[in-house]
């Protein structure tokens, strides 16, 4: 075997992919109607087909083949960055100077930021419920995760958060705070404006360099007012650098085009110029420049004002569908079983033994994702009826004290 010593014996066995494959296999035997596949992190219609937006697809189909064929500039097309900034921040621009670079999906944005703003061996601070690839990125880059309770008593445990920040301030040059809000994966929690403002005040109070990384992968599915958090960023002192990672995967349903924009916000132009330079180097040294297709698509949509308006209408209709699924789930599930949900693709149910519970649910043809602290339910991939059945299955397990 040739793998480096540090990689030997490792294998890719992501439980999401395993349970998804099992759900598909079961559908082939039992019939697709019988099986509930709540593992998929993409928006599906009630027939299990992926949702795309007609207005976006129209631009996609009409893109000129020649113009998509060359390499894009290493930092992205200016028209793409302009479009991404407008869609992401909308009316809620914080008024801070900002620069952006294109990255190969939101995932690359997280990767590049961690690589460039922390040292090997450093900790990344995030919430105790988190998206699995955060750990994978930390492992690949030789960093470690440290967590604080996101929902200990209905909301973030700010005392633990502050304590951990202080500890890290004694050990590391930068504190890297990785926050997935609004519409958090896997819980669907969104920080309220008050919570967000409080988090910013704790960053300010620390008087130590903080890189505040906002993973806003699901922001377009959060209720409209959630983007107000961006305006609050102007309260940050110059000790804090904010990075905002905005992907077209979910918001524009172009998961496979691997396109996102990473924005840095800071008053000092040297900080922003440094950001651009180190991100260009990371693009160059990893995935190269970003998909021309994804970038031209977003730029084209933004320039076609009528289609852009139609996209927003379609998005709103699907956001309402998602909200209804969540309503059914939360109206059915017994109080106290699910984590507090506000927006987005996922809900989470806490459990002492998530793997065991997921195995039990498979007996009822329900396939979900076990995590460290509970089970993820991808409401985005379930109909209302399926959401109700999943909630009922949890109720039954709770009544038997199997959760
Ligand atoms: N952040 C979170 C929490 C996610 O769930 C995802 C995708 O599932 C991403 C970031 C990155 O998505 P992409 O790399 O497709 O833009």
Task: Give a description of the structure.
It is a single chain. The protein has 15 helices and 12 strands. The protein is an alpha/beta fold and 403 residues long. It folds into 2 domains: 5-53 and 313-399, Aspartate Aminotransferase, domain 1 (Alpha-Beta Complex); 69-303, Type I PLP-dependent aspartate aminotransferase-like (Major domain) (Aspartate Aminotransferase, domain 2). The strands form 3 sheets. Strands 2-8-7-6-5-3-4 form a 7-stranded mixed β-sheet, sandwiched between helices. Strands 9-12-11 form a 3-stranded antiparallel β-sheet. It has a two-stranded parallel sheet with strand order 1-10. Helix 2 (54-62) packs across helix 12, helix 4 packs across helix 12 (292-303) and helix 5 (105-117) packs across helix 11. It is globular, with a radius of gyration of 21 Å. The two termini are 42 Å apart. The model has no long low-confidence stretch (mean pLDDT 96).
């Amino acid at each position: 075997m040739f793998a480096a010593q540090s990689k030997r014996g490792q294998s890719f066995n992501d439980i999401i992919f395993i349970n998804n494959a099992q759900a598909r296999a079961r559908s082939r035997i039992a019939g697709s109607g019988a099986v509930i596949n709540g593992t998929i992190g993409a928006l599906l219609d009630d027939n299990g087909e992926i949702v795309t937006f007609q207005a976006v697809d129209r631009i996609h189909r009409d893109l000129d083949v020649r113009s998509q064929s060359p390499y894009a500039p290493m930092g992205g097309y200016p028209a793409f960055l302009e479009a991404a900034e407008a869609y992401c921040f909308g009316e809620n621009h914080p008024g801070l100077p900002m620069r952006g670079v294109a990255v190969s999906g939101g995932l690359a944005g997280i990767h590049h930021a961690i690589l460039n703003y922390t040292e090997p061996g450093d900790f990344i601070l995030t919430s105790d419920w988190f998206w699995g690839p955060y750990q994978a990125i930390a492992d690949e880059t030789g960093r470690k995760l440290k967590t604080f309770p996101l929902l200990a008593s209905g909301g973030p445990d700010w005392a633990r958060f502050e304590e951990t920040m202080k500890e890290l301030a004694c050990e590391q040059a930068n504190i890297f705070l990785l926050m997935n809000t609004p519409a958090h994966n896997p819980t669907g929690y969104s920080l309220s404006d008050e919570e967000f403002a409080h988090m910013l005040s704790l960053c300010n109070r620390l008087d130590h360099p903080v890189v505040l990384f906002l993973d806003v992968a699901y922001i377009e599915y959060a209720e409209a007012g959630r983007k107000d958090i961006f305006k609050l960023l102007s309260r940050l002192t110059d000790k804090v650098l904010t990075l905002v990672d905005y992907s077209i995967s979910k918001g524009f349903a172009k998961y496979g085009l691997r396109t996102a924009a990473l924005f840095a916000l800071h008053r000092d132009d040297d900080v922003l110029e440094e950001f651009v330079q180190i991100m260009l180097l990371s693009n160059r040294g990893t995935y190269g420049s970003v998909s021309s297709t994804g970038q031209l698509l977003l730029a084209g949509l933004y320039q076609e004002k009528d289609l852009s308006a139609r996209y927003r209408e379609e998005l709103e209709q699907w956001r309402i569908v998602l909200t209804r699924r969540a309503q059914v789930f939360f109206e059915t599930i017994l109080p106290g079983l699910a984590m507090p949900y506000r927006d987005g693709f996922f809900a989470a149910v806490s459990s002492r033994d998530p793997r065991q519970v997921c195995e039990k649910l498979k007996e009822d043809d329900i396939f979900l994702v076990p995590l460290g602290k509970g089970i993820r339910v991808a409401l985005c991939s379930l109909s209302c009826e399926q959401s109700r059945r999943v909630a009922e299955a949890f109720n039954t397990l709770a009544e038997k004290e199997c959760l």
